[in-house]
# Entry
Amino acid sequence: MAKKTPINLRVNLGKLKLKNPVMTASGTFGYGKEYSEFFDINKLGAIVVKGISLKPMKGNPSPRICETPSGMLNAIGLQNPGLKGFMKQQLPFLKTLKTKIIVNILGNSVDDYIELAEAMESVGVDAVELNVSCPNVKKGGIAFGTEPFAFEELITEVRKRVKVPLITKLSPNVTDIKQFAKIAEDSGSDMISLINTITGMSIDIRTRRPRIANITGGLSGPAIKPVAVRMVWECSRTVKIPIIGMGGIISPEDAIEFILAGASAVAVGTGNFINPAATIEIIKGIKSYMSTEGITSVNDLTGAMRCLKDRL
Ligand SMILES: Cc1cc2nc3c(=O)[nH]c(=O)nc-3n(C[C@H](O)[C@H](O)[C@H](O)COP(=O)(O)O)c2cc1C
# Structure
């Protein structure tokens, strides 16, 4: 009988070593506990938890979510228990897991981010993801993620203070995402993750009211996938640091598309709401695709898209 070649799903994102390339996207998987009733969450490559700020945040008024064609809009408003609440209520459970824990952090000043990153490093989380879609109060409220100088300063200053692997999460709401990818790399970010949600809005024409109280919100789900794949591809041609791709992944095929476009790992967000076990099915599906295609290491798929000219 022919010997089956083992499939290797392990990926090394610099110092961050994952057993497989599938993780959860921040804000869509709570703090892990919520999903542990559905499946063994230790099987995930990593868990990225909901964004944490220094002080607790109540979030926006309801309605905060609405369905849109092939996606959803959300304006949760970064509701979270704050640093102390996270350490007390969520961290003890996360520490019992046998998967990597990545904490998404957010703040309104460079100092907020530094304090949060240092706190996370001190308790031994595996990586910190900088959510840069927040207004910088010291600079008149411009978002860190859409203003190149504020973006650069933020990453540079946080990098100076911590050694923990840093992931910078890029906003798609910019003219040229490649520019931000390059700044993140040059400022010391170990990885980039993309994309965060795309700003959108929806109106109920009968009531003439916006469908979410905040009026605008972040669009996510399959509707944004082609934009996200394009942005991952553009960034992969611009930087050498690993890329975590996300935006509309609900199936193994979606995940593989991101990897072929240049992602070393992927994250599932809205897909968890449609199918709580989506991540596990995606891991299995990637494995069976590799087996069919005769690929032994998932790393060989990263950026392995063939261009039409290759056919000539
Ligand atoms: C309800 C909800 C909450 C989110 N909260 C966060 C957050 O706290 N921090 C963050 O960086 N991204 C947050 N995101 C963005 C997701 O992590 C992800 O980047 C985006 O939804 C695209 O992936 P998807 O189409 O698979 O959902 C949130 C998304 C949703 C839908």
Notes: The chain has a mean pLDDT of 95. Residues 25-28, 50-51, 74, 76, 78, 104, 131, 169, 196-197, 220-221, 224, 246-249, 268-271 surround flavin mononucleotide (CB under 6 Å). Residues 42 and 97 are 6 Å apart (CA to CA).
